[in-house]
Amino acid sequence: MEGYAIFINKNVVGFDIYRKATEKPLFQIIKNLKSKIGQKYQLKDQQGKIIKNSDELKNIISILNKKNLRLIK
Question: What does the pLDDT look like over 4-24, one tens digit per residue?
Fold first, then answer.
């Protein structure tokens, strides 16, 4: 993992994870501020497909831990 970005608007807050800063985000963690039950947090892949919906951020993070992402210094 080489980069990240945070975005905020009136309906969502998001955290993008990039392999390279010039590419699309590898993953997006999105918090929906006007969410339905079970859909407060979403994890999306590079194509925008929803991988996981959850009311708990730890469930989203556990999916990323399984992907073996490494921080590049």
Answer: 899 999 999 999 988 877 788
